[in-house]
Design brief:
The N terminus is likely disordered. This protein is of the alpha+beta class. About 25% of the residues are buried. It has a three-stranded antiparallel beta sheet with strand order 1-2-3, with no helix packed on it.
């Protein structure tokens, strides 16, 4: 993993690259540039909440129902688990939190 120093990702050559959200993914490679501090991100700089926002699918629209939202969270959480970014316990906690949320529920 690259080192971060004052919001800058330090390249192996020692030349820092801007990383405005301090997620260890340089701005020019970060597909999710405003990830909240401390969230686990994939190689594209996206967290699970970036990829599966409560408001609706990442590509637009709204969730058909709560089950669709929970299923999407579980799918992305499994990808993060397979990539070694989160533990099985963290995945279970993330999916449980999604199941307890109001995301995708009709108002």
């Amino acid at each position: 993993q690259p080192q971060v120093l004052n919001g800058q990702v330090k390249k192996r050559q020692g030349c820092p690259e801007p990383d405005s959200d301090a997620d260890q993914v340089p701005n020019d490679q970060d597909l999710c540039p405003d990830t909240p501090l401390g969230e686990v991100v994939n190689v594209d700089g996206c967290s699970i909440s970036d990829l599966v926002p409560c408001e609706g699918p990442h590509d637009g629209g709204t969730w058909k129902n709560h089950g669709q939202y929970v299923s999407a969270v579980a799918h992305v959480a499994n990808e993060f688990l397979a990539q070694g970014l989160i533990t099985p316990e963290e995945k279970d906690a993330i999916v449980s939190a999604a199941a307890r949320s109001d995301c995708g529920k009709k108002k």
